[in-house]
Amino acid sequence: MTVRITTSLRVSRRIPLLQTLKTSVAVVLAWVISLWLLPGELPIFAAMAAIFVVQPSINQSLGRALERSLGVVGGVLVALGIGLWFGQDSWIVLGAIVLCILLAWALKLSPGSANQIPISAMLVLVLGAATPTYARDRIIETILGAAIAVIVNALIVPPVLLTPAHDAVTRLTLEVAATFDRVANALLSPQKYADLETLMIQARLLRPMLAKAERAISQAEESLTLNPRQARHREVLDADTELYARLVPLVTRALGMTRALRDHYDDSLHLEPTVQAFAIELERAAHDLRLLTVPSEGKPADTTAPAPEPLALTAPLMITTPHPQHWILIGALMEDLRRVREEITGE
After folding, report:
1. Which of 92, 158, 239, 244 is 20 to 30 A from 210, comparing alpha carbons?
2. Within its chain, how far is the Cα of 317 from the centroid?
3. With pLDDT > 90 as the criterion, what percentage of the chain qualifies?
């Protein structure tokens, strides 16, 4: 029997170098300031707090600081009570760890706090005679380290994750437009079964792209929360969020049109006059959708640029009575096109 180890010791991408440098600065400041304010014991609690609290965003750092502080306070209080009543024997330390684990489970604490409570209790019982002064200093030390980490993360180039969100939304927009173009081309000439299957596979890729764009927007939103630089970047994120909201139903329509074409296709479909007109409307929809993409962040505005290109999907489409074999497909395509037009034009 073979054993497969799924845990990897290395990751495919390093954390940003800036975050590593900010963590180092936070640890140094927390260590030095804690030694100055609380001389005597090495400030390992402050250093650990600084290491764990520096996160990719200020909002995450604040949340981790609260988790860390509450976990340390809980663990120190448990260790203080157990140490004063039962001492510091080996089995007492082990019992305190187990008690803290069960306490965190009973209170339904988050993983950060749940792990920190037994660790803090163990360190307090092992490293310091559990006295009120020692316990108080360790709590102050942890809160100090966490506060310094949050401040460092906020002051030293706070991260703004707008570019990944903008790129993901733009790629999704262009791919939806490309799907419309591919369906239009398939309507204009005879298609083989393999071609229709390829068209369907390409359309299904829109779903993971949509999920990726949603995650990127969520990360961008979180990076702006409590960020001092958010006022300068909010407009770009709002534009990307609005475009993403339009793309959600458009992805559904693109998949629906592609599936309907694959399921109800026959070789005489391209001879239908309405289908020819419908293909032209789909190309116009793809054209208009590309016009909705917004400039990337930081791109200077061109004051000499021509006026925005008008939408092409404006004229009504005249429908003639289709062949009985085609009316189901044409009806489905027309309903999808109507909803596509509503989303693109904002009507």
Report:
1. 158
2. 40
3. 20
